[in-house]
Amino acid sequence: REGAPLKQVSISPNSSPAHKNYQRQTEQPTDSGSPANSPRHALKPPNGVLAQKKREQDRNRDMDGITHDTVPVVRTDRQGLLNGDAGDVAKREIMDEDCVDPPHAHIERAKEEERKAPEQREVVMNSIPEQKETNEQKLYKIANELLQTEKAYVTRLNLLDQVFYAKLLEEARKDAFPMDVVKNIFSNISSINTFHSQFLLPDLEKRMGEWTSTPRIGDILQKLTPFLKMYAEYVRNFDHAMDLLKQWTDRSPPFKAIILEIQSQEVCGSLTLQHHMLEPVQRVPRYEMLLKDYLKKLPQDHIDRRDAEKSLEIIAMAATHSNSAIRKTENLKKLLEIYEMLGEEEDVVNPSNELIKEGHILKLAARNTSAMDRYLFLFNNMLLYCVPKFSLVGQKFTVRTRIGIDGMKVTETYNEDYPHTFQVSGKERTLELQASSEQDKESWIKAFQETIHIYLQKNETFKSAFKDVEEVTISELGKRAPRWIRDNEVTMCMRCKEAFNALMRRRHHCRACGYVVCGKCSDYKAPLEYDGNRMNKDLHRKQ
């Protein structure tokens, strides 16, 4: 000790003598067999070189019995051990060469294995031949889809029959509104519901339960064909039902309150009664589509082939009538959506209304030409100029102005500060509008011009029909049979000038003069002399 050169070691000023002693004790390797209460001077090596050799010997001895992947060993600075002083022992580092494996090597290997795992799995998956869906599995999926959609359909039928129909009938018995109105609206929905819920659905559920032994559905769908007459009746009455529903919703507050109360329930799924009433109209085409898909997958020699083809032939014939009704109601569904967006704006849900174009646009102020965000709904007979409302639910627009197509003009304008502008001028108001692009401007102008052109054509047809009518004096009305105006010669009522529509405004003929009129204008009767004084529809009696 006395011969060893002295070295001045800097000690941290923050270290207390007790802390320095603690560092010296913890940084020296201790023999597991030495007593815990050995004297302090026994832990201090007599010389730094000897202490280093002792540590290397201890490390080698310990390594012989260790099998762990990584064994980090503390290596101290040799200079800091001179003269037996461990003041700089705190400045140590784990050296790679003092380990069996580099630090964290096992972690790196695990990460590498994780990176290779997807590639290995992909190799394994590629080595397994892909199992294609068999034809039997495809047939089962189609049959199961038929079952699941049938369950949802029966739920909708039950809503119409047991909720809407039942509650309106209950209120009608209290003389709140005529019972016949309710029955005419829902037609034969109870019969349709009974057939599907008590016969067709149970049969499908039973068949799917025994599919492995009886894989066929054609024989079950053949049971449906005799009942398609019920759908024919429902589809024929659908136009009249929509008309009655609108009339009595506007006319009777109790009638409207019951419908709104049911529509607010969760079971309705935020859909209107009109939407739910479309389900029976759409169901028959759904059967046709599933059967066609089923027959494509069905082998020619399959036992179910004959029954499935026969069912498809009858169902497809019935579906043509339903598809026609569906096309007529698509426009009505869109009108219902706009009706809700506009906060139940009056006269929007009218089958004579046809939406041509809608979208955002900027309106230039008349005084300072500032641009304001607006929304347009262009119909075949009017333009709704609306202001957007910042609302997540309910009403989204407020109607500011209605401009009729009759007398409307559209012209392209030029503004240096505001490009892509055009002007819409009507009897009610003139608007200077700015589109988002030149293409958008041309699209709007084209839509306006075509709408105006079609409207003028219908007006000319209407006027020419009047010229061709043989004048019948009031004194001659009912004394001789008139010449009827053909349905295709007019597009609107010859009395109130409301446009005809197959859903809610159908064509009728006045038996006295032969004019083509709507239902409202032909709801008057009078005895006609040429018909043996029997009561006939006669619009002129009101005049």
TrEMBL record:
Domain PH: 354-453
Segments forming domain DH: 138-325
Gene it is expressed from: LOC107559800
GO annotation, biological process: cytoskeleton organization; filopodium assembly
This protein's UniProt keywords: Cytoplasm, Cytoskeleton, Guanine-nucleotide releasing factor, Metal-binding, Phosphoprotein, Repeat, Zinc, Zinc-finger
One Gene Ontology cellular component annotation held by this UniProt entry: cytoplasm
Domain of life of the source: Eukaryota
Entry protein name: FYVE, RhoGEF and PH domain-containing protein 4-like
CDD domains named among the record's database cross-references: FYVE_FGD1_2_4, PH1_FDG4, RhoGEF
Any GO molecular function: zinc ion binding
UniProt feature, compositional bias: Basic and acidic residues: 53-67
UniProt organism field: Sinocyclocheilus grahami (Dianchi golden-line fish)
Entry's transmembrane regions: none
